[in-house]
Write a structure and sequence with these properties.
Radius of gyration: 23 Å
Shape: elongated
Strand content: 25-35%
Helix content: 25-40%
Number of helices: 4
Number of strands: 8
Length: 143
């Protein structure tokens, strides 16, 4: 450091501002990457089925195309809170309809597929159960 920098308050404040901006930039980059917690898997009809985690890490959103409209993709969303997520990750999830308290229903078929149903009557496309659980674990437990 030269003498002029030590004596000139403007140059000192300039260095402080540069350090502050670098720290702020790193913080903003960290926040932007933490928001990208989602996975995309393919449904049985070969359309995207996306799983998102909210910023509070307490609600998972499932985004999919309406299975009744195969010619075009009419996006539908179902959300599950922690109680529903625990039910979805249950290793002993029975086949048939299972109520997820406060979230809707989980429908697991005998051939290893799963779909979700909301209280409003929205039913998701079927996806493979193993792929679904793997993607959900990745989204929910990713650091």
């Amino acid at each position: 450091m030269n003498i002029r920098q030590i004596e000139d308050p403007f140059l000192q404040s300039d260095n402080i501002m540069k350090n502050f901006l670098v720290i702020l930039l790193l913080f903003l980059i960290n926040i932007s990457y933490s928001q990208e917690r989602f996975e995309t898997i393919k449904s049985l009809s070969n359309r995207d089925f996306k799983i998102y985690l909210n910023a509070d890490k307490s609600i998972v959103f499932f985004e999919f195309c309406d299975p009744k409209k195969l010619s075009k993709c009419d996006l539908k969303i179902i959300s599950f809170d922690l109680r529903g997520i625990v039910k979805l990750l249950d290793k002993n999830l029975p086949t048939g309809k299972t109520a997820a308290l406060g979230n809707g229903e989980i429908i697991k078929t005998k051939n290893g597929n799963i779909s979700l149903a909301s209280f409003e009557g929205v039913v998701s496309e079927k996806v493979g159960y193993e792929k679904f659980v793997s993607a959900l674990r990745t989204v929910f437990f990713k650091y």
